[in-house]
């Protein structure tokens, strides 16, 4: 490195108090906020392209173990409120922004991002060139990274550590409910398997007057059967679906016997349970503007997405599953239907939060499937 470049870095470091270090050796200096008592935190660095919805992103359990980059340059300008959370706790490892607004302006705001991150023990870093970082992830693929407030740390040592660190495999167990609980309703009995569910999914079922019983990811077939469900929904969640193959195995006996619907991780688990395969995407889909085409109607929907894995198309042969939706950006699988007519799933989030509500009707389709199945059962 030239003396001029070295001097530039020294001047930059003197103005900053934190660094983002990536496994490829990239170092970006910024200003720490949130829980700055942590001297370092590592995780999988991903980006989200939503222009709004940072509160929902921060409280989405699917981000467990990840360091989230928001591509929109100004974050925090409308604060955070008590209504738009997707879980009670933030599970992100870190938060990366270009500019953090410390003086939000919104009548619903009760705190700013800095105070929220402090309360949830999450460190953030501001002043990062998020456009550069996003482009790097798009080219290289998802990267492991570390946020540290020790800007004099040995960079080479940290890079070596990151390269030799395996991705976690226990995220679902960290975010799934530990016990069964019920939200009574006068409608159909639905078991919601909590893989790290967002409140939005629960809310949509409650809106339709469902009698919802939420169960942990490792609930057995026998335990679910005893609940006498009229429908089963498998929620979103974090990580590699192959880390929770026990859930996929548990679902197998239900295929074709009872209405089931999978969302995001739930969609991938349904594919695995039917004998298909999944694979990791280069940098994943995370944002509120992903175009998805319904192959049955040729209609295109703008969808909310958050996932790093996808169902392998070629592996669907002989499973009884056919593709119902595709992603128009990269032609990946976005929806599946089963030959029995009782099983369907989508890779995206019909409950949105954040994102468009275009696909909210899918919850109605799930209820209609239960109604048709119940009518057939009663004949």
Automatic annotation (TrEMBL):
GO terms for biological process: 'de novo' pyrimidine nucleobase biosynthetic process; 'de novo' UMP biosynthetic process; glutamine metabolic process; L-arginine biosynthetic process. One of its GO terms (molecular function) is carbamoyl-phosphate synthase (glutamine-hydrolyzing) activity. It comes from the Bacteria. Pathway: Pyrimidine metabolism; UMP biosynthesis via de novo pathway; (S)-dihydroorotate from bicarbonate: step 1/3; Amino-acid biosynthesis; L-arginine biosynthesis; carbamoyl phosphate from bicarbonate: step 1/1. Its EC number is 6.3.5.5. L-glutamine binds at residues 62, 237, 239, 265, 268, 306, 308-309. Residues 1-188 are annotated as: CPSase. The active site is at 264 (nucleophile), 349, 351. It is an enzyme of class 6 (ligase). PROSITE patterns: GATASE_TYPE_1. Residues 16-148 form the Carbamoyl-phosphate synthase small subunit N-terminal domain. Keywords: Amino-acid biosynthesis, Arginine biosynthesis, ATP-binding, Glutamine amidotransferase, Ligase, Nucleotide-binding, Pyrimidine biosynthesis. It catalyses: L-glutamine + H2O = L-glutamate + NH4(+); hydrogencarbonate + L-glutamine + 2 ATP + H2O = carbamoyl phosphate + L-glutamate + 2 ADP + phosphate + 2 H(+). Pfam families: CPSase_sm_chain (PF00988), GATase (PF00117). Belongs to the CarA family. Small subunit of the glutamine-dependent carbamoyl phosphate synthetase (CPSase). CPSase catalyzes the formation of carbamoyl phosphate from the ammonia moiety of glutamine, carbonate, and phosphate donated by ATP, constituting the first step of 2 biosynthetic pathways, one leading to arginine and/or urea and the other to pyrimidine nucleotides. The small subunit (glutamine amidotransferase) binds and cleaves glutamine to supply the large subunit with the substrate ammonia. Composed of two chains; the small (or glutamine) chain promotes the hydrolysis of glutamine to ammonia, which is used by the large (or ammonia) chain to synthesize carbamoyl phosphate. Tetramer of heterodimers (alpha,beta)4. This is Carbamoyl phosphate synthase small chain. It comes from Desulfuribacillus alkaliarsenatis. The lineage of its organism: Bacteria, Bacillati, Bacillota, Desulfuribacillia, Desulfuribacillales. The gene is carA.
């Amino acid at each position: 490195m030239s003396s001029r470049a070295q001097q530039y870095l020294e001047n930059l470091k003197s103005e900053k108090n934190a660094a983002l270090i990536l496994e490829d050796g990239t170092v970006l200096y910024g200003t720490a906020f949130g829980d700055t008592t942590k001297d370092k935190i590592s995780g999988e660095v991903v980006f989200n392209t939503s222009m709004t919805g940072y509160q929902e992103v921060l409280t989405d359990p699917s981000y467990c173990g990840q360091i989230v980059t928001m591509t929109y340059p100004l974050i925090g300008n409308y604060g955070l409120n008590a209504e738009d959370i997707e879980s009670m706790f933030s599970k992100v490892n870190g938060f990366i922004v270009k500019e953090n607004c410390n003086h939000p302006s919104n009548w619903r705001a009760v705190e700013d991002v800095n105070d929220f991150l402090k309360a949830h023990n999450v460190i953030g870093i501001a002043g990062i060139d998020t456009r550069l970082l996003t482009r790097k992830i798009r080219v290289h693929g998802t990267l492991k990274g570390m946020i540290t407030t020790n800007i004099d740390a040995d960079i080479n040592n940290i890079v070596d550590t990151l390269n030799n660190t395996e991705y976690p495999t226990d995220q679902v167990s960290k975010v799934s409910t530990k016990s069964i609980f019920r939200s009574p309703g006068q409608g159909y009995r639905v078991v919601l398997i909590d893989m790290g569910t967002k409140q939005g999914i629960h809310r949509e079922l409650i809106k339709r007057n469902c009698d919802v019983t939420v169960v942990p990811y490792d609930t057995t077939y026998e335990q679910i059967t005893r609940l006498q469900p009229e429908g089963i929904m498998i929620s979103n969640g974090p990580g590699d679906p192959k880390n929770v193959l026990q859930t996929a195995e548990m679902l197998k006996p239900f295929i074709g016997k009872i209405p089931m619907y999978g969302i995001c991780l739930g969609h991938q688990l349904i594919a695995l349970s039917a004998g298909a395969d999944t694979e990791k995407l280069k940098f994943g889909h995370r944002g509120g503007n992903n175009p998805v085409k319904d192959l049955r109607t040729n209609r295109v929907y703008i969808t909310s997405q958050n996932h790093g894995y996808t169902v392998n198309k070629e592996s669907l042969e002989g499973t009884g599953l056919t593709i119902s939706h595709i992603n128009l950006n990269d032609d990946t699988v976005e929806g599946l239907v089963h030959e029995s007519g009782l099983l369907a799933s989508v890779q995206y989030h019909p409950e949105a939060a954040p994102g468009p509500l275009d696909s909210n009707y899918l919850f109605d389709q799930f209820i209609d499937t239960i109604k048709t199945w119940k009518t057939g059962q009663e004949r």
